[in-house]
Amino acid sequence: MEDLVTLQIFARTAELCSFSKAAASLGVKNSTVSRHIRQLEQKLGIALFNRSTRALALTEGGRTLWQQLQPALQAIEQACRNTEALNRQPQGLLRLTAPRNYARHCLLPLLPAFMQAYPDIRVDALIEDSVIHMIDQHIDLAIRIGTPQDSTLQGRRITPLQQRLVASPGYLQANGQPCTWPQVADHACLLQGLNGPVAWYGSPAAQADAAPLALTVQGRFRSNDGDALLHMALADQGIALLPDWQVEEALQQGRLQVLLDDWTVRSQREPVWVWALYPPKQTVSSKVRAFIDFCVAHLARP
């Protein structure tokens, strides 16, 4: 970088044929210009200027360097302008990753509007439940549900994950409907995850500050896939605790019913958030910032 500064100072001095004018135009001291020119001449082993008390003129070596240097400096300046433009106007390739269910129900329906709003952005979407290494895979942005596990990443919370306790009318007709939180444990529950006991956490919605009550639930079906749990709930197989965006359509169609709708129920003791994560950088690119802002505007819930 120091060499580039020296060459830029030489080019401006050659253009103006004056150390003092070059210094004034660059906003530096005359001594700074003189020092850089002297260092450049020592490095090249040739005088670049003929100096006199009246005038400053390029030597043959100075003219050769200036003629060949001008296109290179112009190309560098243009490259810098092009790069700055990337951050002024969101553009370029945005590589993002998201878990399958959230992508299917929330992100993918949002993408057409985002791409229409930002026609200069191209999107590569890696839909994958496993956590991938963002830098190795050249990922700009990762959507994750739950507390981020990688402390080296930066991020922004998009929206809280709101879950609904649901069952089908067929299941409720055959097995009855729980009227209290403890009664849920008496029912067949559809369990997220394949290992260990499962607890759900509930508290009255009217008591926002109340500590959630843990309830150990059991059932004959478990899965690590939310759509599998939804399928079994629709097939009258039990009570499921699923994100609201996953059950919204079935609720509107009457194929599922919300249970204990005056309770806040979730799969973890603490509130769960949807996060947008990105590799640590001093400046977040405008394309990443644009996508996060778009998600917050369209997906955020109180």
| Element-level helix/strand string | HHHEEHEHEEEEHEEEEHEHEEEH
- Gyration radius (Cα, Å) is 32 Å
Please report the distance between the alpha carbons of the first and last residues.
49 Å
Could you say what the CATH topology of the largest domain is called? D-Maltodextrin-Binding Protein, domain 2
| Helix content range | 40-55%
- Bin the strand percentage: 15-25%
Which parts are unreliable, with pLDDT below 50 for 5 consecutive residues or more?
none
Q: Give average pLDDT, whole number.
A: 88
CATH architecture of the largest domain, please? Answer: 3-Layer(aba) Sandwich
**How many beta-strand runs?**
15
Query: Strand arrangement, largest sheet?
Result: 4-3-5-15-6
- The DSSP helix count reads 9
What class, by secondary structure content?
alpha/beta
For the sheet with most strands, the description reads: 5 strands, mixed
CATH class categorisation of the largest domain? Alpha Beta
Shape: rod-shaped
Task: Give the total of domains.
Answer: 3
Please give a structural write-up:
By secondary structure, the protein is an alpha/beta fold. It has 3 domains: 2-88, Arc Repressor Mutant, subunit A (Orthogonal Bundle); 92-160 and 272-299, D-Maltodextrin-Binding Protein, domain 2 (3-Layer(aba) Sandwich); 163-266, D-Maltodextrin-Binding Protein, domain 2, CATH 3.40.190.290. 41% of the residues lie in helices and 24% in strands. The protein has 9 helices and 15 strands. The strands form 4 sheets. The chain has a 5-stranded mixed sheet with strand order 4-3-5-15-6, with helices on one face. A hairpin with an 8-residue loop joins strand 9 (198-204) and strand 10. Helix 1 packs across helix 2 (19-26), helix 1 crosses helix 3 (30-44) and helix 5 (100-117) crosses helix 9. It is rod-shaped and about 105 Å long. The two termini are 49 Å apart. Residues 1-59 form the HTH lysR-type domain. This is Transcriptional regulator. GO terms for molecular function: DNA binding; DNA-binding transcription factor activity.
